[in-house]
Amino acid sequence: MSWINRLLGRKPKPAQGVQSGPVFSVAPLTATGRDDAKAKKAGSAAMFPRFQSTAGDQLSPRITDRFAATRIKLRSAFTPSQPITDRRMFAGRTDVLTTLIRSLEDQRVHVIMYGERGIGKTSLVHVLTQAAQDARYIVVYCSCGAGSNFEEIFRAVAADIPLLFHSGFAPTAEQAERGGSLADLLPAGPLSPRTVADLFAKLTGTRVLVVLDEFDVCENPEFRRNIAELIKNLSDRSIRTQLVIAGVAADLTELVEHIPSIRRNIFALQVPKMTAAEISHLVENGEEISGVAFDRSALDFIVFVANGSPYLASLLSHHSGLAALDKARTKVSVEDVSLAVDQALAEFRGRISKHAQAQIDQAAKSGVRHVLGVMAGAALFNNGRFDGRDVDALYPSAATAANFKNTVQELADKGVLLEAHDDDYGKGYKFSEESVLPYLWILAAQKRFLESRKPTPAPEKAAPEKPVAEKTPDKASEKAGAKDEPVAAPVRAAARQG
């Protein structure tokens, strides 16, 4: 039996005189059959997902979506995974930016910005950088890594400062005209803070800003000590170089070592969460750039869930805008934001350990997940911490507050999502994983906002009630009350922070 017959499923031709079964053959493909095959292939190609723009941010000629251009604008307007680098997209915080500029220009101090992740530190740094460059400052931006070292960073900084700004070289000097830099004057051996300060002391005709972003990522204690020593050297000698340091930290001493020796030489700013008006401004900026509009309820939904976080506001605006465009609309509704919230929840849940996910699901069954979510909202911008005062602000009823405090303590004792934490503020609690905070808060915020939109049923006329003796609520009824009691805005932790 030939391989062609085997491939086509044909049976071997029987010997003469032996009855044979049916013989299979392949019918020739007709013109109609070829057309059907082409149509099927074309339909399959049309359904296959494609990028809608090229790597040069141009529309792909194969895309027929009439909203493709709007999608490109929307992606530029809301960039949750990237900091803002265009000042047109910078919303609110003009007072903060003004304070930073005056600290650098008027007081000639070094600036340290710290705060929670996602609060907008890097965006502030980029906009501050643009303002400094407009004033003809030389700005050198460095993003620190775990293995950053002093010599590597400041050789790179010196390489970005032209030699013509060195007092020992005239602008027409041969080295300056050849495009030399301060790095050409550094010794071959190891660099010390004193060596770098001596070099920068020769600067004239300009000012230099050295931006050290993601400073908290660096794990090298020697690097931190050298930075503190350099700040002191630069300040004591009124050298025309200033540092801007930004990083995730709960307080100043957590970010920079040897603070007492340089305290008078720095301006420290704990970046606050954005106000509701600033979040609204952020979304409105995106509307102007993208051409996608948010109705009033959708904007209120985003402001409520964002809870002062520019990252969450940008994330929800991005997803909800795309959800509206998928439905051939340029107007974002509450339903679109709700879909965006679901997508954000899926993203955050993917960052949580399986163990914590199981504990969250169990908390939902026991009725405490929603209140834990509101506590997470209070802890988001307080280094992940909340305490009894936040519970008291949430529940005016002393009995209900006491009941929930007991529940929180039990969870912390068992290591379920929480752990007890003692610090300068007293006894408090912290969530076991960083991603648990936004996940629990978004769940609670979505539930609370959507419930507030439900129409209130008209009160029914009830028959006069007979007087009954007042009963003391038991624990079960208190838990039920804790689950259904109105949720107060988690502002106490933010107030302590400010």
Write structural notes for this entry:
It is a single chain. About 35% of the residues are buried. The model is unreliable at about 15-25 and about 470-498 (pLDDT under 50). The protein has 22 helices and ten strands. The radius of gyration is 32 Å and the shape is globular. Helix 13 runs antiparallel to helix 14 (about 310-325). Strand 3 (about 210-215), helix 9 and strand 4 (about 240-250) form a beta-alpha-beta unit. The protein has about 500 residues and is an alpha/beta fold. It folds into three domains: about 95-270, P-loop containing nucleotide triphosphate hydrolases (Rossmann fold), CATH 3.40.50.300; about 275-350, Helicase, Ruva Protein, domain 3 (Orthogonal Bundle), CATH 1.10.8; about 355-450 and about 475-495. A five-stranded parallel β-sheet has the order 2-3-4-1-5, with helices on both faces.
What are the main properties of this structure?
about 500 residues; three-stranded antiparallel beta sheet; disordered C terminus; 3 domains; single chain; five-stranded parallel beta sheet; Rossmann fold; globular; Helicase, Ruva Protein, domain 3; alpha/beta
Would you summarize the structure shown here?
The chain is 49% helix and 10% strand. By secondary structure, the chain is of the alpha/beta class.
Give the SSE layout:
Elements: H1 3-8, H2 31-47, H3 68-77, H4 94-105, E1 110-115, H5 121-134, E2 138-143, H6 150-159, H7 174-177, H8 193-200, E3 208-213, H9 221-236, E4 241-248, H10 252-255, H11 259-262, E5 266-270, H12 276-290, E6 293-294, H13 296-306, H14 310-326, E7 331-332, H15 334-349, H16 354-366, H17 369-379, E8 385-386, H18 388-394, H19 398-414, E9 418-423, E10 426-431, H20 436-452, H21 475-484, H22 492-497
